[in-house]
Amino acid sequence: MKKRNNYISWDEYFMGVALLSAQRSKDPSTQVGACIVSTHNKIVGAGYNGFPIGCDDDEFPWDKQGDLLETKYPYVCHAELNAILNNIGMDLSGCKIYTALFPCNECTKAIIQSGITEVIYLSDKYKGTDTDKAARKMLDKAGITYRRVKTNLPNLVLSFNEADV
Fold first, then answer.
1. What is the CA 80 to chain-centroid distance, rounded?
2. Positive or negative CA dihedral for 117, 123, 124, 129?
3. What is the C-alpha separation between 72 and 63, in angstroms, rounded?
4. Strand-by-strand arrangement of the 96-101 sheet
5. Are 50 and 82 in contact (CB under 8 A)?
C-alpha cells in the first residue's frame, strides 16, 4: 500500500488553523484568525479578533460606525496580536505567521517587534489603503517577507460526525 497523495500542504494546514481560529471570533462582521509557526513547523501561537480578557463582549460595542468610543475599534485585539500574546512562551524569532487577512499597520508593528520573519495571508481586502501601505512599508524596511497563500483548494470541510473519521 502506498501513502495517499491528496493530503494538504503545510501552507494549507496552517492557514486552515488560522481560519478555524477565526471561528472563535464573536465579531458579527469580520472574523480573522492567525497561527504562528516555528521553523520546525510547530504551532507556537494562535489567536482571533476579539476583546481583551476581562472585557465582557456583551458590555462593549460591536458597531463599525459612529463615535469612536461607541464602535469596536478602540477595544478589539486583532488576531495577529492575540496570536503573539498567546504564544507558548518562546522567542518568536524566525517564525511565520499565517493570517486570514493581511495585517494592519498596528499588528505589523507587533509582528516586527516579535521577530517573526514571514507573513502568509489569505485576503488582501484592504490593499491600497493608508494602513495597508504603512504596513507594507514597515515590512519591507524590516526585511520581512509576505505572500498570499497558494492553494488549489476552494474549501476544506471539517466534520464532527464520527462516521466520517
1. 5
2. negative
3. 6
4. 43-48, 33-37, 96-101, 118-123, 145-148
5. yes
Which uninterrupted H or E stretch holds 133?
helix 130-142
Q: Which amino acid is at 2?
A: K
The whole-angstrom separation of Cα 47 and Cα 45 is 7
Q: Active-site residues: which are they? A: 80
Q: Report the 10 Å Cβ neighbour count for 85.
A: 14
pTM: 0.94
C-alpha cell at 48: 482571533
| Residues β-bridged to residue 101 | 123
Q: In this structure, how many other beta carbons lie within 10 angstroms of the beta carbon of residue 143?
A: 8
Please state, in angstroms and rounded to a whole number, the distance separating the CA atoms of residues 98 and 103.
10
Determine the pLDDT at residue 163.
86
Q: In terms of C-beta density within 10 A (0-12 exposed, 13-18 middle, 19 or more buried), how is residue 108 classed?
A: buried
**58-93 per-position pLDDT tens digit:** 999 999 999 999 999 999 999 999 999 999 999 999
Whole-angstrom distance, CA of residue 31 vs CA of residue 7: 26
Angle, CA of 34, 39 and 42, to the nearest 5°: 60
- Contact indicator for 24, 33 with CB cutoff of 8 Å: yes
